[in-house]
Amino acid sequence: MARMKFLCDSERCIECNGCVTACKNENEVPWGVNRRRVVTLGDGMPGEKSVSVACMHCSDAPCMAVCPVDCFYHTDQGVVLHDKDMCIGCGYCFYACPFGAPQYPQSGAFGQRGKMDKCTFCAGGPEADHSEEEFKKYGRNRLAEGKLPLCAEMCSTKALLGGDGDVVADIFRDRALKRGKGGEMWGWGSAYGKPEQKPDAKKPEVKS
Amino acid sequence: MRKLVIASFVAAFALSACGDKEGVVVYKQGSYSGKTDGKPWENAAFAGDKAKWENSIRVRGQGQNEYKRVGD
Questions:
Q1: Distance CA A8, CA A188 (A)
Q2: A150 Cβ neighbours under 8 A, 6+ residues apart
Q3: What is the pLDDT of residues A81-117, one digit of tens each?
C-alpha cells in the first residue's frame, strides 16, 4: 500500500511558484488562503535556498492530536484529511503544525475565522468522489483519478516530488548520489520521523 | 532493632512523595468522529480495481524521475 509523502529538493527549487499557482488553480482556493507556498532562506544572498511548503501529511500528525472536535483522519494511503462540517475554526491545529499548513478564510469582519483549509494531497475529502460538494469544500480529487498532486506533477525542475514515500525517496537518493551533494530531505524528520527500529531487532552489544 | 524498624517506616512514609514521574507530555490521537471517506479506487474510473489504481499511481510516481524518462 502506497504511503503518500511530499519531498522538496532545495537544490532544485528555483522559486518559480509554479506549485503555488497549480494548487490555487486546480483546487480553486479562495483569496487569502494558501495551501502551498514557497519559502526562501537567505533571499538575494549567494547560496539562497527555496523550499515549497504545504501540509506534509505527517505520520504522527500534531493537528490530529490537538483538534478538540476530532475532525481529522488518516486515509489508508497516509493522507491527513479533515471533515469541514465538524471544524469549528478554533485554530489549535495552526499552532500545533510545524509547517504552518492550516489556513483560515476570512469569513467576516473583526478577524472572524472560517473553517480550516489545507492541502489535501489532491485527495478531496469525506464526500462522494468527484461530487460538486467535495470540490467546493476540499478541491479536486486527483488521487481518485489515479493521479498525483498537481503541484508535484507540474514542478518544472522536479524539485517537488509527491507520491509513494518509497518511490520519491528512491528518486531523490538516485539524484543526490549523481550530483554528489544536497542530500538533505527538508522537513522529513519532523513529518515522518526517523526510521523505526524493529521491536525484535537486537541492539549491538556495547563493549566496556 | 525496634528503633531501626520504626525509623524505616518513618522514612518510607516521609519519602513517599519523592518519586520521579515522567515529565514528558504524551499526546494521544483523538478518534475521528466525522463522515466516512471512500477508497480512491471505488469510483467509475477504477471500478473497485485496487491493483489498477496502484499501478496508475506507480506510473505517475516514476514519471517524476527524469533520469528514467530521458536516460542517464
A1: 9
A2: A22, A23, A26, A122, A140, A142
A3: 999 999 999 999 999 999 999 999 876 776 677 899 9
Q: How far is B52 from chain A (nearest CA, A)?
A: 9
Measure the CA–CA gap between A115 and A94, rounded to whole angstroms: 12
**Confidence at residue A157, expressed as pLDDT on a 0 to 100 scale:** 95
Q: What is the pTM of this model?
A: 0.82
Return the sign of the alpha-carbon dihedral for residues A107, A129, A152, A55.
positive
Of A66, A73, A144, the CB nearest to B40: A144
Sequence-distant (6+) residues with CB within 8 A of A62 are A93, A96, A97, A98, B27
- Whether this model's ipTM surpasses 0.90 comes out as no
DSSP reduced 3-state for B23: coil
- A153 vs B72: CA distance, rounded Å: 21
| Chain A residues near residue B67 by CB distance under 8 angstroms | 174-175, 178
Chain B nearest CA to A174, separation (Å): 9
Q: Which CATH number fits domain A4-192: 3.20.20.150, 3.40.50.2000, 3.30.70.20, 3.40.980.10?
A: 3.30.70.20
* B28 contacts on A by Cβ (under 8 Å): 65
Element (H, E) at A5: strand A4-8
User: Which residue type occupies A38?
Assistant: V
